[in-house]
Amino acid sequence: MKKVVGYVRVSTQAQTGEDRYGMDAQRSDILAYCKEHGLELVKWYTDAVSGVEEERPELDKLLFEEDDDLIGVKAVVVAKSDRLARDINLYFYYKFVLKRKNMELISVSEDFGMMGVFAGVLESLTMCIAEQERLNIAKRTASGRRVKARSGGYAGGRPPYGYKAQNGRFVVDEDEAELVRLVFALTEKGQNLIDIADYLNEHGYRTRLGKRFYPSQVKAIRDRKPFYQGLYKYGGSDWVQGIHEAIL
Q1: What is the distance of C-alpha 57 from the center of its chain?
Q2: Which residues are CB-contacts of 168 (< 8 A; sequence separation ≥ 6)?
Q3: Does residue 248 form part of some domain?
Q4: C or N terminus of the chain, fewer CB within 10 Å?
Q5: Model confidence, pTM
Q6: Beta strands in the chain (DSSP E)
């Protein structure tokens, strides 16, 4: 019997909005799929995050750490492909990481394998739709904060790495700002996401939760370069000149 693990992810923020595919529903669908297809489900990995693409320690453990429970595991089963990631670039990067570990990704809702030679095209199209949905959700939930965002002010949400929220403004956190500058310095030297994460960990840097850095977290920092240069945007709004101090 083929060994698999299940991955479940919900956004606590989205559970009150458009995305109500809760943990119990995902688990139920995954269990039913494994039973129907003769798969041995040996472990669950579960993340509940406060945003759409926030830190996900269980996914990081599954993808990047050595775990004895993964010995002999041939696949990761998710209820929907967007549970892995709605960002299309992250999704295919995570699939690449799984492939290197000799594991495939199985989506209960989208059986891409049934499409034969069109499987890759359908998968890419599905992820493009999921990414657009993510952007649309961000636009709708941001409507009440757009006026403040247009003026470059803090419109709520978790402060990006390198900053803390203080009296309704972003204030530079010097300890974290040092790491942000280091990430971009290493990027300019041509180092990739994995190399940078390894460097940070080897030199004792840790996340806000006191955990190791992973490539996905390094990417999140690099993707915010305009913000670190003093610009600001919220949700689907345009970049405007921010009122926060630039780090870069």
Answers
A1: 10
A2: 153, 154
A3: no
A4: N
A5: 0.50
A6: 2-11, 39-49, 73-78, 104-107, 163-166, 169-172, 231-232, 240-241
